[in-house]
């Protein structure tokens, strides 16, 4: 089908003034990803179903509106990149760069994700219900990432801010050259990266875990005191960059 166009009711800046409450359907078997993204950049509806993605790259990138996008199938590189405000669900697997540089909103993948999920992301919530490959959360700058399974090597490499929760195992190099991001891992952890150390898990961190797991929909873990007790916290030893106590509130 051809890409769906915006409604005639639009503001002076060309953005849609009112959004249709009916779900719109775009089938990538007959529409291009360029047409899809053009529609999502100036949406006429609040909810979208995207059919037949078949591993297509750059699906639902650059969203800047309060809309729901349900992708029914696997996606390729950079799905949900630069997302702001959008709520994206992928019923399938995701390729490299999922949610790269996302600013806000949510992205949920019901399968696994490839490398560099959430790279450089500054805000919002990224949930991968399965596992992720290497460099999950690389250079993250404020995003919250919750992974239901394992993460690959060098996850949270150079992570500056934000929170990474891993409900499975973490491979070698976790938190290498980390700044002030916080990492929680329930399973086994390989060799830690440079300047990453295990830290005390205090009551405020348990409360933070409950908040993140609940937001990710993992309420069975969030409500299980025993499961919460299996998590360990990791962060920066603060030996690889200049840290001063008078600026501690900025970190």
From TrEMBL:
Gene3D superfamilies: Glutamate synthase, alpha subunit, C-terminal domain (2.160.20.60). This is Glutamate synthase domain-containing protein 3. It comes from the Bacteria. InterPro entries: Glu_synth_asu_C_sf (IPR036485), Glu_synth_lsu_3 (IPR012061).
């Amino acid at each position: 089908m051809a890409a769906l166009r915006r409604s005639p009711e639009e503001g002076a800046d060309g953005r849609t003034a009112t959004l249709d409450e009916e779900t719109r359907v775009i089938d990538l078997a007959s529409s291009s990803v360029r047409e899809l993204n053009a529609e999502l950049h100036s949406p006429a509806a609040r909810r979208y179903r995207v059919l037949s993605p078949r591993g297509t790259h750059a699906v639902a990138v650059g969203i800047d509106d309060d809309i729901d996008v349900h992708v029914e199938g696997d996606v390729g590189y950079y799905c949900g990149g630069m997302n702001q405000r959008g709520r994206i669900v992928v019923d399938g697997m995701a390729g490299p760069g999922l949610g790269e540089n996302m600013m806000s909103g949510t992205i949920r993948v019901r399968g696994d994700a490839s490398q560099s999920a959430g790279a450089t992301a500054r805000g919002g919530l990224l949930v991968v219900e399965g596992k992720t490959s290497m460099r999950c959360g690389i250079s993250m700058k404020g995003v919250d990432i919750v992974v239901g399974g394992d993460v690959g090597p060098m996850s949270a490499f150079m992570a500056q801010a934000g929170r990474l929760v891993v409900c499975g195992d973490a491979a070698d190099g976790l938190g290498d050259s980390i700044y002030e991001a916080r990492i929680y891992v329930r399973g086994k952890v390989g060799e830690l990266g440079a300047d990453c150390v295990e830290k005390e898990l205090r009551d405020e961190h348990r409360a933070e875990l409950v908040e993140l797991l609940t937001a990710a929909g993992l309420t069975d873990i969030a409500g299980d005191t025993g499961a919460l007790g299996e998590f360990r916290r990791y962060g920066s030893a603060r030996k690889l960059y200049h840290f001063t106590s008078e600026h501690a509130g900025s970190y």
